[in-house]
Amino acid sequence: MIASARRRWLAHCSAALAAAALLAAMPSLAAVGTRPRMILVVGDSLSAEYGLKRGSGWVALMAQRLGREHPGETVVNASISGDTTAGGLARLPALLAQHKPGLVILELGGNDALRGLPLEATRQNLVEMARLAKAAGARVMIIGMQLPPNYGRSYGERFASLFADVAHAEGTALVPFMLKGVADGPRAEAMFQADRIHPLASAHPIILGNIWPVLEPLLK
């Protein structure tokens, strides 16, 4: 009887030690499971703070708001002034491998139109970028753009619609027009820098206001 009780006591101690070891390991396991979400922005000068004081563009404003309302989200701004969809597509694989984002925001296409590049090439580049991001396990948001009237109504309509077409085909989130309330507002001329292409810092809270309602559901 004494030997049997001793065996039961030893077994109980072994089980307790195993449970303690498991509990000690749990913080490290939880840390792996709760890695902060990385948000990768791949854009052009409209996202790269061209002509602006650092920290005043919409991406920086987004990061600040995320810090207040969604702590733990990290933003990497990989935008380059003058970049095209072809340039973004060439850069994206390395960016995905380096940052492993949970969300990729694509803000490209405006420079394609300014350079007169074929719309079908722009469309296909956006499709490929969306597919690469999804294959890497990220959600995707596409930010649309529109052209001034002097580019012609037909070309402008086809350009604006390609963003929605890609978003629908690839099942991504969409901001239809990045500069809504800026370029088409009653004080449009006063919202832009001297080049009449790049918005002033005062316009970037409006830009973020267009993006945030589409962004926030993707964080949940």
Count of DSSP E strands?
A: 5
Please report which band the strand proportion falls in: under 5%, 5-15%, 15-25%, 25-35%, 35-45% or over 45%.
5-15%
Helix and strand succession? HEHEHEHHEHEH
| Average pLDDT rating | 87
CATH topology-level name of the largest domain: Rossmann fold
Gross morphology is globular
Poorly predicted sequence stretches spanning 5 or more consecutive residues: 1-36
Cα-based radius of gyration, to the nearest Å: 24 Å
Fold and architecture overview:
The chain is α/β, with parallel strands linked by helices and 220 residues long. The chain has two domains: 1-34; 35-219, 3-Layer(aba) Sandwich (Rossmann fold), CATH 3.40.50. 50% of the residues lie in helices and 10% in strands. Helix 2 packs across helix 7, helix 3 (85-99) runs parallel beside helix 5 and helix 5 packs parallel to helix 6.
Descriptors for this entry?
disordered N terminus, 10% strand, single chain, Rossmann fold, 220 residues, alpha/beta
Topology:
Elements: H1 2-33, E1 38-43, H2 58-69, E2 74-77, H3 85-99, E3 103-107, H4 110-114, H5 119-135, E4 139-143, H6 153-170, E5 173-175, H7 204-215
Parallel strand pairs: 1-2, 1-3, 3-4, 4-5
Helix pairs in contact: 2-7, 3-5, 5-6
